[in-house]
Amino acid sequence: MKLLLVSALAALLTAPVAAQDKSQLTATNALPAEDDLAVRQVIARANQALDTGDYELYASFYTEDAVFTSGFGSTEGREAIIAAMEASRPFITNKRHVSGNYVVNGEGDTAVVSTYLIVFERETDLTYVGSALNVDTLVRTDAGWKIQRHESTLDPATERAMNALMGNQ
């Protein structure tokens, strides 16, 4: 169980704990409904691609020069994102990444989406693994909306649990 929790928490691939930026909650620059739905679909489809273990598909939701920031550092570019996911495969396998409480702001060809991420174990039992705040910046490309920047911040209880299990008190 301890190994499972460590593995699952590491799957969050998140940055250190930071205060939530409240400006995202009060912004008034809403996207048109069609764009709002499209950026939500990108986030949902990327999460599901991650859960399938197809990291090339996962990276296809990012721009070629995307920046992926996590508790393990920052990675730039699709190939580096794929490599980071491959290196984390043991921690990501058999997890379910669920985003909710979408707050979407944007203007023109740029959108900023904040979501709460909840991660569950889905094979051995139904176990809550951890949670985080994700903030994704998306841009409209010729191929549709793509994630240009992904930043993930562990919730404090998740970070404490992860540090304790990894011996980083």
UniProtKB/TrEMBL annotation:
Residues 1-19 form the signal peptide. Transmembrane segments: none annotated. Residues 33-149 form the SnoaL-like domain. CDD domains: NTF2_like. This is Nuclear transport factor 2 family protein. Gene3D superfamilies: 3.10.450.50. Keywords: Signal. Pfam families: SnoaL_4 (PF13577).
